[in-house]
Write a structure and sequence with these properties.
homodimer, alpha+beta, Arc Repressor Mutant, subunit A, 3-stranded antiparallel sheet, 3-stranded mixed sheet, 26% strand, globular, binds manganese (II) ion, binds zinc ion, DNA-binding
DNA sequence: ATTATTTTGCAACATAGTTGCAAGGTGTTA
DNA sequence: TAACACCTTGCAACTATGTTGCAAAATAAT
């Protein structure tokens, strides 16, 4: 299924390279989110660390993946919906991090509520991250 | 006003040391939040980096400060309200980070809304971080 | 096929955070 | 207040994370 990756890269106006195809494939295979370290592990010595950093950066810029802030100071990345394009993301959904299994979920159908801010504060971006136990880990 | 710091440390069952008094004083003086690097700057060479790390950890554990996740992958810390104790924080307010001046605010009077999660997901903690421009930076 | 443009790997560097251990400081008890 | 036990600190060494410049390789355009 290499066609899918190639298509997506073309759609976002990126040249087709091995690193990009492979890293994009990881995201298409993974239900949850991935951290830089995950990709480094999965790909072994196939690519340089720096290439992975730069690829992730590029994917974020082009609207292929979005970042998920976490309270433990480690950025995770997940696939965007198809509407995201260069310089303009539409990922206004809630994220969930399971404390047991560590999986990060995009809750695409749970949207971030508007919050009323004090006078003079203007919101540009709102991140809502919930942590707890997921539906696979519940007792 | 060294009494204030000493009192707070005693209240949270910590022994009184120079590093703890000084670092706590920084928080009491600062309206917004502080990062590890801020404290390192403010204190110059007075304390070792490691001491600052350990002091912040201890303060978080004892309920003196709480962490604020940010989208740029850097943890910031802010004073807790008096109700927080060892192993049990009550900081369920919204945080605001100004993209212009970089200040991080605890919006103590804006509480985090409950979000409805899919079946099987149990929330333990919810972090809501808004970024944009603050009331001092608005044009 | 040739050329122009992008991407990659490497090396070097910078920042952030952790751990073990000996020395020094704090609190407790007599 | 002196002796002791316990906790905290500084130092060194280490790991992890992320960035930059540059030459070589790969890709895209002609
Ligand atoms: Mn998401
Ligand atoms: Mn706060
Ligand atoms: Zn789970
Ligand atoms: Zn501001």
């Amino acid at each position: 299924m290499e066609i899918k990756e190639t298509d997506k890269l073309k759609k976002h106006q990126l040249s087709i390279t091995d690193a990009r195809k492979k890293i994009l494939a990881f995201f298409l295979q993974t239900p949850g989110a991935l951290a830089h370290a995950d990709i480094e592990h999965k790909s072994g010595t196939e690519f340089d660390r720096v290439t992975i950093y730069r690829t992730l950066q590029t994917f974020v810029e082009k609207g292929i993946i979005h970042t998920i802030p976490t309270s433990d100071n480690s950025i995770r990345y997940a696939l965007c919906k198809d509407e995201c394009v260069t310089g303009h993301h539409h990922d206004d959904h809630v994220h969930f991090i399971c404390d047991d299994c560590g999986t990060t979920y995009c809750l695409d159908h749970v949207s971030v509520p508007k919050v009323k801010l004090p006078k003079g504060f203007k919101a540009v971006q709102t991140d809502l991250v919930v942590s707890g136990s997921c539906n696979k880990c519940e007792q």
